[in-house]
Amino acid sequence: MTEQANTGAGATEEQTPQFSLQRIYVRDLSFEAPKSPEIFRKEWTPAVEMDLNTRQKPLDGDFHEIVLTLSVTVKNGDEVAFIAEVQQAGIFLIKGLDAASMSHTLGAFCPNILFPYARETLDSLVVRGSFPALMLAPVNFDALYAQELQRLQQAAPENATH
Prior knowledge:
Radius of gyration: 21 Å
Structural class: alpha+beta
Order of helices and strands: HEEEEHH
CATH architecture: Roll
Strand order of the largest sheet: 1-4-3-2
Shape: elongated
CATH superfamily: SecB-like
Low-confidence stretches: none
Distance between the termini: 63 Å
CATH topology: Bacterial Protein-export protein SecB
């Protein structure tokens, strides 16, 4: 009786979706302040431009690397005060998901986990460059993912007619 219960539980575990974070790391990091030290002597009226990208790469087995690239360019008037970029990466074990759930996990859920680390890394980097902290607002990766799906769906009929 015990063997049957264990066998049944083992079959259920194989079908149960699994997700675990294996590692978070900085893949690349850069900072440039092209107008230093002159920029520090001017009135500080910053304009922040942020660019956000993600990419994914399957690794061995059910492991995936997700890389979130966060680039920030800050101008003071017409001059670039600094450019900072981080590629925050993570290795995730993901298995047992259907295609739609896997796509959402890789495209929204994983980047959402990485963003606070990328934001903190950039903030620390900028402060080390002697600039005020960035304090970037949170990003809604679910909304970005939904917008990208909608864009792809709208582009699909156009590609089919050409």
